[in-house]
Amino acid sequence: EAKASYRGSYSFFSNEMNLRAQERLALENALREAIEKQQLRLHYQPQVMVEDGRLHGVEALTRWHHPTLGEVSPARFIPLAEESGLIGSLGLWVLEEACRQLADWQSRGIDVPCVAVNLSPTNFHNIELPPIISALLARYALEPARLVLEITENVLLDGNATTLSIIQEVHALGVKLSMDDFGTGYSSLSYLRRLPVSELKLDKSFVHDLHNDQTAQALSEAVIRIGESLNLVVVAEGVENEIQLNLLRQQGFHVIQGFYLSKPLPAPMLESWLQRRPPVN
Ligand code: C2E
Ligand code: MG
Ligand code: MG
Ligand code: MG
Question: Which residues form the EAL domain (predicted)?
Answer without folding.
Answer: 24-278
